[in-house]
Amino acid sequence: MFRTIITSHQLHPLPDVKLLDCRARLGDPQWGATTFATAHLPSAQRADLDTQLATTPGDRGRHPLPDIETWVAEIRNWGITQENQVVVYDDAGGAFAARAWWMFRWAGHAAVAVLDGGIQSWPGPLEASNEQIAQTAEPSNFEARAPLTKSVSAEDVLNGRGQIVDARSEDRWRGLEEPVDPVAGHIPGALCLPFQANLTSEGGFKSAAQLRARFAHLDDPIVCYCGSGVTAAHNVLALNIAGREEPSLYVGSWSEWINDPRRPIETC
Question: Least crowded by CB within 10 Å, which of 132, 186, 195, 231?
Answer without folding.
Answer: 132
